[in-house]
């Protein structure tokens, strides 16, 4: 990987307040829909979070144990849309493709 800019930070700085970067990646629409459902579940529990914060929290808190990473990758490579969506006994999975930009918050 090419390094562009280096900077230093205090080891005591909160990760959630540190310098950020816009990631550039693509993933299945079903994963994007799953993220929306996870954010909704977190917000229903009173966490008042965002897609960005939830993704960062999941990555930051995940282990770097090779066996755990292998398990996660194998799961991703083999899981069906039906299982990932948690929708049993359906003949089609409904997916929503959002355009770029912030999502509208659900009315409370």
Radius of gyration: 17 Å
Q: Name the shape in a single word.
A: globular
The N- to C-terminal Cα distance equals: 44 Å
Supply the number of helical segments: 4
Overview of the molecule:
With 108 residues, this protein is mainly alpha-helical. The longest helix has 16 residues. It is globular, with a radius of gyration of 17 Å. It starts with 28 loop residues before the first helix and ends in a 23-residue tail after the last helix.
Task: Name the descriptors.
single chain; 108 residues; mainly alpha
What is the secondary structure topology, with strand pairs?
Layout: H1 29-44, H2 51-61, H3 66-78, H4 81-85
Summarize the structure.
The protein is an all-alpha fold and 108 residues long. The chain has helices at residues 29-44, 51-61, 66-78, 81-85.
């Amino acid at each position: 990987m090419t390094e562009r800019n280096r900077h230093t930070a205090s080891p005591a700085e909160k990760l959630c307040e540190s310098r950020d970067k816009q990631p550039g990646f693509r993933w299945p629409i079903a994963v994007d829909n799953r993220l929306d459902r996870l954010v909704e579940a977190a917000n229903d529990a009173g966490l008042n979070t965002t897609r960005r914060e939830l993704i960062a929290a999941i990555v930051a808190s995940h282990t770097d144990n090779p066996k755990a990473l292998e398990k996660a990758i194998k799961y991703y490579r083999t899981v069906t849309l039906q299982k990932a969506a948690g929708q049993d006994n359906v003949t089609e999975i409904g997916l929503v493709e959002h355009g770029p930009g912030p999502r509208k918050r659900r009315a409370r």
